[in-house]
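Annex B, item 7. Sequence and structure tokens for protein A, then protein B.
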Amino acid sequence: MKQLHHIFEKIERIFVILSQTALVIMMILIAADAASRYVFGQSIIGIYEFTERYLMIAVIFLSMSYVAKLDGHIKLDVLIDRIPASVTEIFNTLFQLLGAAFIFAIGYQGMVMTYEAWSNQVVSTGLIAWPVWLSYIWVPVGAYLFTCRLMLQFSQSLLLLLGKKKRQFIVKKEDVI
């Protein structure tokens, strides 16, 4: 389990770096577009569409798994604070499994859409005909990565509930990218 977790951490790190790179590229392109509008009085063609349909999707989907690792997704703590810790652990374990199933379904649908867009050579409707599958591909990649993260967390939570294992894989501040 530790070796599997270690391999997954390395893969996840690669995709987080890709997400961060997409964010930096997005900032540079938007700044260049704003400067172009100010200096030349005209936008750079395709920047808005490229950042909206390609880079933003990559930033969001490629970082979802890492955010789950940091326990950074939105939660409703109103009820959690009022129920016993043992019940909270059961709910968390159940929600990790249900979340993994839901995200897997999103990934599957994204994979189907990506394949259809690729095989039919679908392009975007704009001044620049970008291939749409390059936008869609980040949905299944990020969703399957997130599914793996949720399943790792589920297995760890289940082992904790069953008393078979002590708490492991806690994120330390020095592990944060």
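Protein B:
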Amino acid sequence: MDAMVLTMAVRIGEERRRPSRRTVLRAALGSAAGAVSLAACDGPRSEAQQLPAPDPLNPFYHDTAALLGRYDAAIATQPALAERLGPIRDAHRTHLEALAREIGPGLDTAAATSPGPGPGEPSSLAALSAAEQAASAAAREACLRAPSYRAALLGSIAAARASHVAALS
């Protein structure tokens, strides 16, 4: 019986040929098309997956907004106090803006906040001083509980509120 011999050229010691640009482009386009088709396999996401979790500073933000509302109401009802209370109110507005930047997309703006003192609550200096003392204590606690990257912001708010208590005394 005759044996069949297969021969082929063998290259020894030569470098492998580099792929052509066309081959590289085909591979890139193919992988991009594959990624797009795989991404389409995901089902619709629920709202809970799309919305960020509420930030732990949300209650502090809303308390600051309520305190700002108290100052606005006091200035509206007693315009003679505007010169004395205006800078403190402006500081609270700045704090509110800084907190909103810090919280970012986790800010819960849907929560109801009281824009000022409720019916029957006085908007006098004594009431503002008491509210400022409570807010100062809350700011100190928030600063102590917060992660280190938020401590500087909350510490400056706590210090400002302590100075507001002194200014209102």
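Comment on protein B: The chain has a mean pLDDT of 81.
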